[in-house]
């Protein structure tokens, strides 16, 4: 990934802004050290609501082979440098959800997770011969001691008709619906996936909506009409690099009401690429309103040329949240800090309701 290279940072700013931005960065650092965190609401905090951090690529393993050393902690360090405040690790199956709980438990206050079964994995409910047991195991994963304060949603669940080769439609429908039981029983919001399902997703969602507290449709790539249907169901919309590939995508993203918007990377997938309609927004100069915020810069190397501390090309990771934030802010023509503040509040309302936002 070379998204955060020269064009997107200091070099592209208006003349004279460089020194100023260094000063404000310094001031912000001092403030962080002296004032309790709740008081600097202007400080950019970016929660990543969807990162698949149980993927072996974050341990340096690609298709079963060790491509480079495990750089998981370095990856998290970069995320912190990029002002990522929270990462919700996606659980895509029972096994993955258990791993996610364990992983998130190792980084309290920074990593959280979901527990559920992705539509393409729903055959797993039946493969072991006892779907009720699979459900009971998911519920036990949410209710385990280790999950307290760690599990913030049921999911990733939903429907995906682009990948029926992994799981037939009827099976997806059956176990998506089953996961509403899990959300209802645990009181957790839902982390939802919907891909090319006609009206099926919305129909099922509408039928079950009263049973669940809240939900976000992540990695949204739908039309304006689909957006309106989801908003009518009082759902939130998750935007990542895949949600902004085309000019039409960007238009739809701009139509998401700001109090319904959440941001994510979907790492290691969905990186913003030079061929995407989103890319030019990354190279636009930051406006004067962004003086308090400066994107961090990271080196990026091919995995074969791995270097400690550098990102790995082609492997998206949470530090690129700053790029998602920047594109959305530029496309919607609002200050980065204002957008970040609103997205943070939206995220807390759904996933961290106990946080004090005053
Ligand atoms: Zn998804």
Describe this protein's structure.
- The structure is a single chain.
- The chain is α/β, with parallel strands linked by helices.
- The protein has a single domain, classed as Alpha-Beta Barrel (TIM Barrel).
- It has 12 helices and 12 strands.
- It has an 8-stranded parallel sheet. The protein has a two-stranded antiparallel sheet with strand order 2-3. Strands 11-12 form a two-stranded parallel ribbon.
- 45% of the residues are buried.
- The structure holds zinc ion.
Strand content: 5-15%
Element-level helix/strand string: HEEEHEHEHHEHEHEHEHEHEEHH
Percent helix range: 25-40%
Placed side by side, the strands forming the largest sheet appear as 1-4-5-6-7-8-9-10
Protein structure class = alpha/beta
Ligand set: zinc ion
SS elements, strand count? 12
**CATH architectural group:** Alpha-Beta Barrel
Oligomeric state of shown chains: single chain
InterPro entries: Metal_Hydrolase, TatD-like, TatD-type_Hydrolase
Region (Disordered): 1-20
Family: Belongs to the metallo-dependent hydrolases superfamily. TatD-type hydrolase family.
Pfam family, one: TatD_DNase
